[in-house]
Amino acid sequence: MTRGFTGRRRGGKRRLPPGQYDVGPQFPVLSAEATPRIDTERWSFRIEGAVREAVEWDWEGIHRLPPGSYSGAIHCVTSWSKFDTSFSGVSVDELLDRAGPLPEATHAMAFSHTGYTTNLPLADITGGKAWVVWEYDGAPLPPEHGGPARLLVPHLYFWKSAKWVAGLRLMDHDEAGFWERNGYHHRGDPWQEQRYTGD
Question: What DSSP state is assigned to residue 101?
Answer without folding.
Answer: B
